[in-house]
Design brief:
The chain contains nine helices and six strands. With 225 residues, the protein is an alpha/beta fold. The protein has one domain: Rossmann fold (3-Layer(aba) Sandwich).
């Protein structure tokens, strides 16, 4: 997409099992709050720090692609799904690949929720994330930042690197920028449970995603693939 050709690019990784409207709101509000040129969705092949996705990677990718087909400023990076093997996918390696793709100077911003950011010290080679991208942290009521005041390594990084949205365009990486987003208590787990029980998920997921789920009978039983 031409909108993604330059400027500050947001990177939004996840299992997207399935992609739902809170994912889309996060991407939209990150663009608005942070002045991003676009957001690239990166479905995970085999995530490292969580249980295996219920739905096959190819289906998860297809749902993201359909949801974003008519969304200007959004793109999809399919590489982790297409190249998925038995080893887990690590965010630091995703960012290394994105950095090779976009060059050393383009500002890249990893989009995270506050809960994920609070667990960052458990991530593989987490210190290196700051050399590869900025990190923007979405906060909402009940999911505020819980770092910055203590003595842990992440608190020290947050204190040293905290910036404003305007800082993102000034360097390719290294800042941590919080932003507030609309509180939407929607979870992929709850959506999967509804679908397994034969209940409706309309307006929780984009229509294109729901159509795909219906046509492929995904999630419709506890082991539906």
């Amino acid at each position: 997409m031409s909108e993604l050709g330059n400027g500050v690019l947001g990177l939004f990784g996840g299992t997207f099992d399935p992609l739902h409207v809170a994912h889309l709101r996060l991407a939209i509000e990150a663009r608005e709050a942070l002045g991003l040129a676009g957001v690239c969705f990166i479905p995970a092949g085999s995530p490292a720090l969580r249980e295996a996705p219920q739905c096959a990677a190819a289906h998860r990718l297809a749902m993201v692609e359909r949801a974003l087909a008519d969304a200007p400023g959004f793109s999809v990076d399919a590489a982790e799904v297409l190249n998925a093997d038995s080893r887990p996918s690590y965010t630091v390696e995703t960012l290394e690949r994105q950095r090779r793709l976009h060059g050393p100077q383009r500002p890249l911003v990893l989009l995270l929720g506050a809960d994920a950011f609070a667990r960052l010290e458990a991530w593989h080679r987490w210190h290196e994330l700051f050399e590869l991208a900025h990190i923007a942290v979405a906060t909402r009521p009940g999911h505020e930042l819980r770092v910055g005041a203590g003595g842990a390594a992440l608190d020290r990084e947050f204190t040293a690197r905290r910036g404003e949205p305007a800082d993102l365009a000034k360097a390719p990486a290294g800042r941590i920028v919080p932003f507030a987003m609309t509180a939407l208590e929607i979870s992929a787990t709850a959506i999967r449970q509804r679908l397994a029980q034969g209940l409706s998920a309309r307006y929780l997921v984009p229509d294109a995603v729901l159509d795909y789920i219906d046509s492929h009978q995904i999630y419709r039983t506890p082991h539906g693939h």
